[in-house]
Design goal:
With about 180 residues, the protein is an alpha+beta fold. It folds into 2 domains: about 5-65, 434 Repressor (Amino-terminal Domain) (Orthogonal Bundle), CATH 1.10.260; about 85-180, Jelly Rolls (Sandwich). Helices cover about 25% and strands about 35% of the residues. The protein has helices at about 5-20, 25-30, 35-40, 50-60, 65, and strands at about 85, 90-100, 105-115, 120, 130-135, 140-145, 145-150, 155-160, 165, 175-180. The strands form 2 sheets. Strands 1-2-3-10-5-8 form a 6-stranded antiparallel β-sheet, with no helix packed on it. Strands 4-9-6-7 form a 4-stranded antiparallel β-sheet, with no helix packed on it. A hairpin with a 4-residue loop joins strand 2 (about 90-100) and strand 3. It is elongated and about 65 Å long. InterPro entries: Cro/C1-type_HTH (IPR001387), Cupin_2 (IPR013096), Lambda_DNA-bd_dom_sf (IPR010982), RmlC-like_jellyroll (IPR014710), RmlC_Cupin_sf (IPR011051), TransReg_Diox_bact_type (IPR050807). GO terms for molecular function: DNA binding; DNA-binding transcription factor activity. Keywords: DNA-binding, Transcription, Transcription regulation. It holds the Pfam family HTH_3.
């Protein structure tokens, strides 16, 4: 793990380069001198909390965006043994794989539905898209009461701002991979 001032410097430089900003332009946006920004980027200066806030405000990023550790190029998620949440007396189990990422606006999870299990979701906010891939089993999806029977290897995409239900009428567990995209969070 890097020391905090080195991490801030890497994050600051990454944001600046990603936005195509010169040190001069960034200095104008943040009201922090070009020399100070250069020293911070090189990990030579430990900025004060006030300076980090000025930079975050000027660049319109969160305070923690400058403090966070760089994410690994590859992240492996393994489904937990115990579900994060359940529904329908435990017949519908949700396992978070990747929590909401504000940069991609995506979260992913696995849902396992036991035989006879059902979950009806209230409408989500406008702009939410659901992408569901059937990993195993056969299940019925209802979107605004329109039924869709889906099998292993198939996928469905729909606007999540309508009533929708996940139903397992089969004799075996159904396993779903779900990707939620939030356009307005």
């Amino acid at each position: 793990m890097d020391s905090i001032h080195v991490r801030i410097g890497h994050n600051l430089q990454r944001i600046r380069k990603m936005r195509g900003l010169s040190l001069d332009k960034m200095a104008n946006l943040t009201n922090v001198s070009k020399g100070t920004l250069h020293q911070i980027e090189r990990g030579e200066l430990q900025p004060t909390v006030t300076t980090v806030w000025k930079i975050a405000t000027g660049l319109n990023v969160s305070f923690s965006a400058l403090l966070k550790e760089e994410e690994a190029a590859v992240t492996i998620a393994t489904r937990k043994e115990v579900p994060d949440v359940t529904e329908d007396d435990g017949r519908c189990r949700v396992y978070m794989l990747f929590p909401f990422d504000p940069q991609t606006r995506i979260e992913t999870f696995t849902i396992t539905i036991s035989p006879g299990g059902r979950y009806t979701s209230p409408p989500h906010n406008d702009g939410v898209q659901e992408y569901i891939t059937i990993v195993s089993g056969v299940f019925r999806m209802e979107v605004q009461e329109e039924p869709y029977t889906l099998r292993e290897g198939q996928a469905i995409r729909f606007a999540g701002n309508v009533r929708h239900s996940y139903i397992n009428d089969s004799e075996a567990d159904v396993v779903l991979h779900v990707v939620m995209h939030y356009s307005d969070l």
